[in-house]
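Re-run requested by the PI after the first attempt was lost when the workstation crashed. Everything re-entered from the original request form. Ligand of interest: hypoxanthine.
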Amino acid sequence: MSVEFILKGGEKMSIHIAAKKSDIVETVLMPGDPMRAQYIANNYLQNAVCYNQVRGMFGYTGTYKGKKVSIQGSGMGIPSMSIYAHELINDYGVKKIIRIGSCGSLQKEVNIRDIVLAQASSSDTNINGRIFPSMTFCPIASFNLLLKAYNKAVEMGIKVNVGNVFTTDLFYDEPSDSWKVWSRYGVLAVEMETAGLYTLAARYNIEALSILTVSDHLITNEACTSEEREKTFNKMLELALELV
Ligand code: HPA
Protein backbone atom coordinates (compact mmCIF):
# COMPACT_ATOMS: atom_id res chain seq x y z
CA MET A 1 0.00 0.00 0.00
CA SER A 2 1.30 3.44 -0.75
CA VAL A 3 -0.11 6.53 0.91
CA GLU A 4 0.12 9.97 -0.63
CA PHE A 5 0.01 13.09 1.48
CA ILE A 6 -1.63 16.03 -0.27
CA LEU A 7 -1.49 19.73 0.65
CA LYS A 8 -4.62 21.93 0.58
CA GLY A 9 -3.74 23.28 -2.88
CA GLY A 10 -3.61 19.71 -4.24
CA GLU A 11 0.20 19.42 -4.30
CA LYS A 12 2.04 16.48 -2.79
CA MET A 13 3.95 16.85 0.50
CA SER A 14 6.29 14.41 2.21
CA ILE A 15 5.12 12.40 5.20
CA HIS A 16 6.52 14.76 7.86
CA ILE A 17 7.04 18.06 6.00
CA ALA A 18 4.00 19.99 4.75
CA ALA A 19 5.74 21.84 1.92
CA LYS A 20 5.55 21.95 -1.87
CA LYS A 21 8.71 20.85 -3.65
CA SER A 22 9.49 24.43 -4.67
CA ASP A 23 9.20 25.70 -1.06
CA ILE A 24 12.56 24.21 -0.06
CA VAL A 25 15.88 25.08 -1.73
CA GLU A 26 19.01 22.96 -2.35
CA THR A 27 20.92 24.08 0.75
CA VAL A 28 19.40 23.50 4.18
CA LEU A 29 20.70 24.44 7.63
CA MET A 30 19.43 22.10 10.34
CA PRO A 31 19.38 23.17 13.99
CA GLY A 32 18.13 20.50 16.41
CA ASP A 33 15.72 22.92 18.07
CA PRO A 34 12.88 24.13 15.81
CA MET A 35 12.72 27.38 17.83
CA ARG A 36 16.25 28.07 16.57
CA ALA A 37 14.95 27.76 13.02
CA GLN A 38 12.37 30.42 13.86
CA TYR A 39 15.07 32.59 15.50
CA ILE A 40 17.27 32.37 12.37
CA ALA A 41 14.36 33.20 10.08
CA ASN A 42 13.39 36.21 12.22
CA ASN A 43 16.88 37.58 12.78
CA TYR A 44 19.02 36.61 9.79
CA LEU A 45 16.83 36.00 6.71
CA GLN A 46 15.01 38.36 4.39
CA ASN A 47 11.52 37.46 3.16
CA ALA A 48 11.43 34.28 5.25
CA VAL A 49 8.40 32.05 4.72
CA CYS A 50 7.46 29.24 7.10
CA TYR A 51 6.81 26.13 4.99
CA ASN A 52 6.31 23.60 7.79
CA GLN A 53 4.67 23.51 11.19
CA VAL A 54 3.86 19.80 11.38
CA ARG A 55 4.81 18.52 14.89
CA GLY A 56 6.13 22.02 15.64
CA MET A 57 9.24 21.16 13.59
CA PHE A 58 9.45 24.55 11.89
CA GLY A 59 10.97 24.96 8.45
CA TYR A 60 11.64 28.30 6.72
CA THR A 61 13.01 29.47 3.41
CA GLY A 62 14.40 32.96 3.00
CA THR A 63 17.34 34.92 1.62
CA TYR A 64 20.75 35.55 3.17
CA LYS A 65 23.03 38.05 1.37
CA GLY A 66 21.06 37.47 -1.83
CA LYS A 67 21.21 33.64 -1.66
CA LYS A 68 18.21 31.45 -0.89
CA VAL A 69 18.52 29.07 2.02
CA SER A 70 16.14 26.82 3.96
CA ILE A 71 16.29 26.20 7.70
CA GLN A 72 14.70 23.00 9.01
CA GLY A 73 14.57 21.79 12.63
CA SER A 74 15.85 18.22 12.96
CA GLY A 75 14.75 17.30 16.47
CA MET A 76 17.03 15.29 18.75
CA GLY A 77 18.77 12.01 17.94
CA ILE A 78 19.49 9.99 14.81
CA PRO A 79 15.90 8.76 14.21
CA SER A 80 14.44 12.28 14.13
CA MET A 81 17.31 13.79 12.12
CA SER A 82 17.17 10.87 9.66
CA ILE A 83 13.45 11.27 8.97
CA TYR A 84 13.79 14.96 8.09
CA ALA A 85 17.08 14.59 6.19
CA HIS A 86 15.71 11.61 4.22
CA GLU A 87 12.61 13.55 3.13
CA LEU A 88 14.59 16.72 2.36
CA ILE A 89 16.91 14.72 0.10
CA ASN A 90 14.45 12.33 -1.54
CA ASP A 91 11.24 14.39 -1.71
CA TYR A 92 12.63 17.93 -2.00
CA GLY A 93 15.89 17.44 -3.93
CA VAL A 94 18.14 18.93 -1.24
CA LYS A 95 21.85 18.71 -2.12
CA LYS A 96 23.61 20.25 0.90
CA ILE A 97 22.76 19.88 4.58
CA ILE A 98 24.64 21.75 7.28
CA ARG A 99 23.76 20.71 10.82
CA ILE A 100 24.19 23.51 13.36
CA GLY A 101 24.01 22.05 16.83
CA SER A 102 25.55 21.73 20.24
CA CYS A 103 27.93 19.17 21.72
CA GLY A 104 29.70 18.21 24.94
CA SER A 105 33.50 18.42 24.93
CA LEU A 106 35.47 15.21 25.53
CA GLN A 107 38.93 16.85 25.44
CA LYS A 108 40.68 19.25 27.82
CA GLU A 109 41.82 21.37 24.87
CA VAL A 110 38.31 21.78 23.46
CA ASN A 111 36.79 24.54 25.55
CA ILE A 112 33.27 25.49 26.40
CA ARG A 113 31.91 27.90 23.69
CA ASP A 114 34.42 26.55 21.12
CA ILE A 115 33.30 25.48 17.67
CA VAL A 116 33.84 21.92 16.39
CA LEU A 117 33.76 20.90 12.72
CA ALA A 118 32.85 17.20 12.64
CA GLN A 119 35.28 15.61 10.18
CA ALA A 120 33.86 12.14 10.93
CA SER A 121 31.52 10.50 13.38
CA SER A 122 32.00 7.49 15.62
CA SER A 123 28.87 6.12 17.25
CA ASP A 124 27.21 3.70 19.63
CA THR A 125 24.14 3.50 17.39
CA ASN A 126 23.13 0.34 15.57
CA ILE A 127 21.81 2.10 12.46
CA ASN A 128 24.87 1.15 10.43
CA GLY A 129 25.08 -2.28 12.07
CA ARG A 130 21.79 -3.06 10.31
CA ILE A 131 22.99 -1.80 6.93
CA PHE A 132 26.51 -3.29 7.17
CA PRO A 133 26.18 -6.43 9.34
CA SER A 134 29.60 -7.42 10.82
CA MET A 135 31.29 -4.61 8.84
CA THR A 136 32.04 -1.01 9.78
CA PHE A 137 31.08 2.07 7.78
CA CYS A 138 32.80 5.33 8.66
CA PRO A 139 30.45 8.33 8.29
CA ILE A 140 32.49 11.35 7.13
CA ALA A 141 31.85 15.00 6.32
CA SER A 142 31.83 16.39 2.80
CA PHE A 143 35.47 17.40 2.25
CA ASN A 144 34.33 20.33 0.12
CA LEU A 145 32.09 21.75 2.88
CA LEU A 146 34.64 20.99 5.59
CA LEU A 147 37.41 22.78 3.71
CA LYS A 148 35.16 25.76 2.94
CA ALA A 149 34.00 25.97 6.58
CA TYR A 150 37.58 25.78 7.86
CA ASN A 151 38.84 28.47 5.46
CA LYS A 152 35.84 30.71 6.21
CA ALA A 153 36.40 30.33 9.96
CA VAL A 154 40.05 31.36 9.56
CA GLU A 155 38.96 34.35 7.44
CA MET A 156 36.36 35.34 10.08
CA GLY A 157 38.87 34.94 12.94
CA ILE A 158 36.87 32.10 14.51
CA LYS A 159 38.86 29.33 16.23
CA VAL A 160 37.63 25.89 15.18
CA ASN A 161 38.52 22.36 16.31
CA VAL A 162 38.38 19.79 13.50
CA GLY A 163 38.11 16.06 14.16
CA ASN A 164 36.08 13.03 15.09
CA VAL A 165 32.86 13.38 17.09
CA PHE A 166 30.88 10.73 18.98
CA THR A 167 27.21 10.41 18.05
CA THR A 168 25.34 8.73 20.89
CA ASP A 169 21.81 7.38 21.11
CA LEU A 170 21.69 8.00 24.88
CA PHE A 171 21.98 11.47 26.40
CA TYR A 172 21.66 9.80 29.83
CA ASP A 173 24.07 6.91 29.31
CA GLU A 174 24.85 4.03 31.63
CA PRO A 175 27.44 3.70 33.04
CA SER A 176 27.63 7.49 33.11
CA ASP A 177 31.39 7.56 32.36
CA SER A 178 31.17 5.40 29.20
CA TRP A 179 32.26 8.47 27.14
CA LYS A 180 35.82 8.13 28.53
CA VAL A 181 36.82 5.49 25.97
CA TRP A 182 36.01 7.96 23.15
CA SER A 183 38.00 10.63 24.92
CA ARG A 184 41.04 8.32 25.11
CA TYR A 185 40.86 7.83 21.34
CA GLY A 186 40.95 11.57 20.64
CA VAL A 187 37.28 12.08 19.82
CA LEU A 188 36.58 15.77 20.33
CA ALA A 189 32.96 15.93 21.44
CA VAL A 190 29.67 14.09 21.93
CA GLU A 191 26.35 14.89 20.23
CA MET A 192 23.39 12.90 18.90
CA GLU A 193 22.79 13.33 15.14
CA THR A 194 25.89 13.50 12.95
CA ALA A 195 26.43 9.76 12.24
CA GLY A 196 22.86 9.54 10.88
CA LEU A 197 23.23 12.64 8.74
CA TYR A 198 26.61 11.65 7.25
CA THR A 199 25.41 8.12 6.51
CA LEU A 200 22.36 9.41 4.60
CA ALA A 201 24.55 11.92 2.76
CA ALA A 202 26.78 9.06 1.59
CA ARG A 203 23.81 6.89 0.60
CA TYR A 204 22.19 9.62 -1.52
CA ASN A 205 25.36 11.35 -2.71
CA ILE A 206 24.78 14.78 -1.21
CA GLU A 207 27.09 17.03 0.83
CA ALA A 208 26.79 17.28 4.60
CA LEU A 209 28.68 18.91 7.44
CA SER A 210 28.02 19.29 11.18
CA ILE A 211 29.13 22.52 12.82
CA LEU A 212 28.80 22.31 16.59
CA THR A 213 29.25 24.64 19.54
CA VAL A 214 30.45 23.25 22.86
CA SER A 215 27.60 23.78 25.33
CA ASP A 216 28.95 21.57 28.12
CA HIS A 217 32.21 19.92 29.14
CA LEU A 218 32.26 16.31 30.30
CA ILE A 219 35.74 16.58 31.86
CA THR A 220 35.39 19.89 33.72
CA ASN A 221 31.59 19.74 34.15
CA GLU A 222 31.25 23.37 32.97
CA ALA A 223 28.11 24.36 31.08
CA CYS A 224 27.17 27.45 29.06
CA THR A 225 24.65 29.90 30.43
CA SER A 226 21.71 30.50 28.10
CA GLU A 227 23.17 33.92 27.19
CA GLU A 228 26.52 32.32 26.27
CA ARG A 229 24.67 29.64 24.29
CA GLU A 230 22.97 32.31 22.21
CA LYS A 231 26.21 34.23 21.55
CA THR A 232 28.16 31.14 20.47
CA PHE A 233 25.17 29.91 18.49
CA ASN A 234 25.22 33.19 16.53
CA LYS A 235 28.93 32.78 15.72
CA MET A 236 28.37 29.24 14.44
CA LEU A 237 25.30 30.31 12.52
CA GLU A 238 27.11 33.19 10.82
CA LEU A 239 29.84 30.74 9.76
CA ALA A 240 27.21 28.30 8.40
CA LEU A 241 25.34 31.06 6.56
CA GLU A 242 28.57 32.24 4.92
CA LEU A 243 28.90 28.74 3.38
CA VAL A 244 25.57 29.22 1.62
N1 HPA B 1 25.75 14.59 25.30
C1 HPA B 1 25.05 14.33 24.21
N2 HPA B 1 24.66 15.28 23.38
C2 HPA B 1 24.97 16.55 23.67
C3 HPA B 1 25.69 16.87 24.80
C4 HPA B 1 26.11 15.85 25.67
O1 HPA B 1 26.77 16.09 26.70
N3 HPA B 1 25.84 18.23 24.82
C5 HPA B 1 25.21 18.69 23.74
N4 HPA B 1 24.69 17.69 23.02
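Saved to the shared folder this time. Residues 102-104, 168, 171, 190-192, 215-216 surround hypoxanthine (CB under 6 Å).
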